[in-house]
């Protein structure tokens, strides 16, 4: 029994459907059927009970599955480990995120990446918005997902991983909280709570000084850490723009999330150092992140 026949048997034992097995392995259903018949002739007993409605393992099939699955996983793990080492995919990749939903994507991608590259470890850590590029510049992270736009000569801005509609976080008792939507022009009516110490490109985009029509936007208190924003808004000291998904992660009493009807999306993308400090395998991880986010690298570039 060759490795391909073992793979067909194990996949059919998991799927219990010839069509799905063929699709998963990129072969024809006839190839699956021929392989199983060959294995049954060799074993001397049927491995599957097959009817027009159902496919199930026989006792002999169940025993064979138990015996083969452990060994197959060890073989594939060994092949992956050697292949990863040959491609230079070994060592530790340190990745960061500045928003929790990006952390979810990175953790999922990290699990997939470690399974594919057993010689590699992935460490995931949170990055504060007020020190967005500091960890990368200090060599503490190799790659991160953060808010765009980033226009810095020492940082490479890679593909956008996902985009979010924008909302305005307002005090729950404010007049704007009663509206179904808000406009960028509404920012001229209320103090805007802005972040301290962020790149100029982010400051201009996220916390503008004027509305599109040129009206000045009053400044409210500045914040260092994101939880401060929620407290400041709840206290009625100003408003803050955010991604729509922030309502799923940061909702609390005293605030409301009102969608913008005319604001561009908030884009979140991958960043890494422009110099040679990044590990050789960073682009393999970028591909895995894009896959986990449900996009292709070509679409993201």
TrEMBL record:
Keywords: DNA-binding, Transcription, Transcription regulation. Residues 1-58 form the HTH lysR-type domain. Signal peptide: none annotated. Pfam families: HTH_1, LysR_substrate. The keyword Coiled coil does not apply. PROSITE patterns: HTH_LYSR. Belongs to the LysR transcriptional regulatory family. PANTHER family: HCA OPERON TRANSCRIPTIONAL ACTIVATOR HCAR, TRANSCRIPTIONAL DUAL REGULATOR HCAR-RELATED. This is LysR family transcriptional regulator.
